[in-house]
Amino acid sequence: MGFLFSCNNSKTESATANADSTAKKPMTDLPYTPSYSSNFTQDVSDADLKTVLMSYKHWADGNMTDLANTISDSVTVDFNNGDHFNGTKADLMKIWSKLRDSLSSVSISMEVWQKMYEPTKKDKAIVTWYKEIDTYKDGKVDSAYYHDINGLKDGRISFYSQYKRPAK
What we know:
The chain contains four helices and six strands. By secondary structure, it is α+β, with helices and mostly antiparallel strands.
């Protein structure tokens, strides 16, 4: 059995040029305009990514001291139940420590993360999707899928917003 290959550089260059010009065309007929931005790159350091992922690991391990080290001194949190927090790391850690103390174990299965950088605003975030299984000290088990936005400033989490869908 034989294969015959042929190459014509002029057609390849023309096809590439057409693809490039098509890719650069802005979509003008979208039904919405983002109120914040749609101009994101992935220009976020691996160190920032590790900080965020370690925050989940520290939560799962019940290591509240190291979890606190991933959080900025001032932090804003939008909880999955609709509550909003804007205050100090120390006050947030009191809330989280009480919640974590009610759990005997936490298991996190990280499914996806995405680095996001908005160059005009110079905002960095890591978006995560994961499944968490919480076992309470009274034996109750709660499992859910989460989608979090972890905003970063100076290598620490300064904004955290969480969305939850119960696993069935």
